[in-house]
Amino acid sequence: MKNKLLKIKEGILKKVKEIKNSDELQKIEEQYLGRKSEFNAILKNIKELSPEIKKEIGALANSIKEELINEINELKGKINVSTKKEFIDPSLPGERTEKGHLHPITVVQEEIEELFSSMGFKILDGPELESDYYNFTALNFSKHHPAREMQDTFFIDMKNEDGENDILMRTHTSPMQIRAMKKYGAPLKALIPGKCFRNEATDARHEHTFYHVEGIMIDKNINFSNLKGVLEMIGKKLYGPKTKLRMRPKHYPFVEPGSNGEYTCFLCQGKGCRVCKNSGWLEILGCGMIHPEVLRKGGIDPNEYSGFAFGLGLDRLVMLKYNINDVRLFNSGDLQFLNQF
Amino acid sequence: MNISLNWLKEFVSLSNISSEEIKDRLTAHTVEVEKIIKQKEQYQNIVVAEILEIKKHPQADKLQLVLVDAGEKENLKVVCGAFNISCGQLVPLAKIGAILPNGLEIKKAEIRGEESNGMLCAEDELGLGSNHDGIMILSSQAKKGELLADYLELNEVVLEIDNKSISNRPDLWSHYGIARELAILFNKKLDDYSTKEIKIKKDNKKEKTKLEVKIEVKNLCQKYLALKIENIKIEDSPKWLKNRLTSLGVKPINNIVDITNYIMFETGQPLHAFDGENIKKIIIKKATKNEKIMGLDEGEKKLEEDDLVISSDKETIAIAGVIGAKNSQINNTTSTIIIESANFDAVSVRKTAQRLNTRTDAAMRFEKGLDPNLCKIAINKAGEMIKKISPSANFNHEIIETGDFVEENKIITLDLDWADKLIGQKIDRKEIKKILESLGLKIEKNKNLKKNEDKSWAEEWDIKIPSWRTKDLSIKEDLIEEIIRIYGYDNIKSSSPKGEIIPPEKDKELELIKKIKKILALSYKMNEVYNYSFVSEEQLLKLNLDPKTYLQLLNPLSTQHTLLRQTMTTHLLSNVKTNQAKYNKIALFEIGNVFLNISGDLNKDETLLNNLPYQEKKIGLILAENTNEKFKNLKNIIFNAIEEISEGAELKFLPTESIIDWADQNEKCLLMLNDKEIGFLATISKEVLNKNGIKKEVSALEISLKSLLSALSNLETKQYQEIPKFPPINRDLAFVIDEKIFYNDIRQEIKDFNPLIKRVDLFDVYSGKNLEANKKSLAFHVIYQSGEKTLTNESVDKIEAELIKLLESKFNAQIRNF
């Protein structure tokens, strides 16, 4: 019986291979797998066998049946497609649907926010219209610091009781350092993205309205080495795992020690190219350890806590990333520009 | 600021060190060196040429045609505008391809029809002096064809230092200051800057013509030194001195002025030289209001009573620390001079220089806060140099020294364990000591406090700050910067901060912004724009808005940006204009701040007495199309977007009579979410569109983010609704009513009519053909469903009949049959 079954199987498989169209296929299917088929006849006889043989033959018969069905189904698929008459050009393009676009600064800002959020930084927003106190005084700018002069800062035509113009468009996101310290105290990890303003004439490389991201981390035992560690990590996330950090002393009134931060150019990996003006490095950051006076103004005891701060220009980051050559495009509202992102 | 390498080498040995290495090391540890300028390269293609022939230009009286021999095969024809030349003279010729120090590139040109193959140069055009009277005539020792730079020995290498990076370091505004840093960075010895006291022989002293100096404003002038010298011969400086100055980009003037400038660039101390003929007395005092003086730069300066001036017994002879007056200028006939070496208050100088827009090299140094000890050093140096350069000079007067300056004994205590903690790494104590001492700091006391656990001593040092660093070194953190910048920021190991891991609190407003941006851009195909926070008066007027209520900038850059925006629509409409020629449909949004001229909720300072003006974030949308469907289309966008943002809440549109200055009379409504007003939607009136030159139909909307957030936070959490067990019955209901009856009211009436009415969906609005004027037809799907049983047609018929009756009586509705 076993041999008989296998023989039938061989026979069918051979015939199946010769099938050329669906009519033939249907015939074969009826002949061998249909209710009146040879195969079913054998299966009908199984019940008369001894239990052991019944089991063996039954299993074999079922597996052969399954195999045949699979074979035939596969063939059906092939025959159906290949018999179709009309030709379709598979190289035709996909149809483009209308899309909306996020501003490129939004896109890059969100990447950075996500990175810091994942490390436990709060993302905070602050007022664009600020006071002289938060923008300068609390950040350790002396009363006559050059940055306070009219050619650097937009003041609002509004005088306080002492006859001073003390309301201004924030020149950096740093005033939020103080506001955040006051609101949340220490320890504190915060990232502050935002729009900033400086009173300087605009051209392809300068804008009076620009976008910054600022980060602060305050805790017991935060040190300069930690600042380096975090900045190295940012560089690697932004520009790839081989990115190196270089720090240079730089003075900002609200940090001490103060530094700038450069990364190896992402385009030439430090060899020197057009993007990095052949230096191999891109200046991306200003940073440093938060000045004790600033901590004090934020209501945090500098004898107990220390912290670092860093800031970077979002516009510059986006310009570098997409090779944008005119900073004014960001605020142009020109769809020919915006639709590219 | 420019620094000459050769000059530095007078104080520190830098042999075998390349200029690139110096640049890199200074940048890494001290200040940013922006570039290295090789002087010789600046004078490429500028050669000595002999004048062979001079002819009149046939087309222009003010020009001449000159034939020169520049040592090349062929003589060159050059058009020249100066008339001080004659045949046989040697002159500088900028050949084609030369770039002059002022940036002018020499190209082959045709000037009034005559070919010109270069340019004969005046002294000022070459940055070699102030003379523009005519072409620079060279001595007969020059050789035809020789590079001008070779002839004049212009071979300096100059470091251009970023002024901003030394704004906190007055000591670095000099060659000696930079040399001090280089000595540390290259581990070289710094030569002392020693000057000899000027000694006057007793029998030479002239008491009669002795100068008197009086400081009236002692707090603004802590030190004033004056030296009167007679029998000076004013002439050109020697070549080496001229070259030093030209290498820095400073034009030589005469021996005395050049010496004062030279000393300023060398020591950082500005000096001033007066013609001393008529000066018997020097008074340092405040100016009189509206006093006018003519400055050395030929500009008239109008003074205020806060300005500090130097005055003789007759008149004002200088604005202290800023600029000298024309009336006491050194000229060719001067024979008595007074050298001033003083310390003026930084803030006072800054304010005056700023207001007069006269930021001289002297003012730039004074405003950083100079070391008063420098005055003496510099004036002695001036005496020394004058003796050498003008040997005829008679020193018959002693230096007069006055002022209240007392040297401060500034000590900073540094706990070294604390230093390790802030740096994050232990730096060898010997190394720290070496760094601090090389910077001129003195470790006065070395106190061993107590033994640490590792048995090392916890040390605390009292450190004395040298006079030239008292301005920028005040606290122990400043010393940390000194230590690690010299040690090298790059040599500090990096490490990860350690601390608790706490998931950050999320700012709800920012989270919502992120969500809205994505939904608008990705689901509703809108484009995000960023606009300025400033608007112009003109922009507002074109939208019928009143500029008077707007906050105003005190110092705007242009008339385009003078006021702080109060609505998003101003710029969004401008954006439509920018794009209208290129796009059929323009769908934009912006999320940004608006600013109102009322008090807000953020405090202004720590007194908490006053608040900042009110500012909040708004969402602005604008839709411009060529069809009149824009109102409906924008409505659909926001309706669906809000549903997505709120996870199912329905935005309602409430007709409004309130005035939106730029809106169409009819197509405007308030946006209501959860019974709270969150913003408005309106079509921009034809009149406003015309005023703005907009050729499309435009609707806009604004939503207050704060209101949206509060409406959203009041929404109940979405609950699962049991899947109905019994089938619904749908009845379509259409009727004609007066067009002024609002959908909102009708729908509410139907919805509230019977609890079995589960949904009321509008599916058609029609007016026009086949309907009476002022009528509209509304068609609804009304869905009846019970939670308890299968509804019969009879029971629904009954409810429907009553509903129709109500609509007929209440709204005068005429039911339409399908």
Folded structure, characterized:
The complex is a heterodimer of chains A (341) and B (818). Chain A is α+β, with helices and mostly antiparallel strands. Chain A is 39% helix and 18% strand. Chain A is built from eleven helices and nine strands. In chain A, strands 1-4-5-9-8-7-6 form a seven-stranded mixed beta sheet, with helices on both faces. The relative contact order of chain A is 0.10. A seven-stranded mixed beta sheet of chain B has the order 25-28-29-33-32-31-30, sandwiched between helices. In chain B, a hairpin with a 5-residue loop joins strand 15 and strand 16. The model of chain B has no long low-confidence stretch (mean pLDDT 92). Chain B is α+β, with helices and mostly antiparallel strands and 818 residues long. Chain B is built from 21 helices and 37 strands. In chain B, helix 12 crosses helix 13 and helix 14 packs across helix 17.
Largest β-sheet summary of chain B: 7 strands, mixed
For the largest interface, the chains and their residue counts are: A-B, 91 and 94 residues
Major beta sheet, strand line-up of chain A: 1-4-5-9-8-7-6
Order of helices and strands of chain A: HHHHHEEHEHEEHEEEHEHH
Please describe the biggest sheet of chain A, giving its number of strands, its sense, and whether it closes into a barrel. 7 strands, mixed
- Please work out how many helical segments of chain A DSSP would assign: 11
Low-confidence sequence ranges of chain B: none
Tell me which oligomeric state these chains represent: heterodimer
Radius of gyration from the alpha-carbon trace of chain A, in angstroms: 37 Å
Strand content of chain A: 15-25%
Number of strands of chain A: 9
First-residue to last-residue Cα separation of chain B: 88 Å
Helix content of chain A: 25-40%
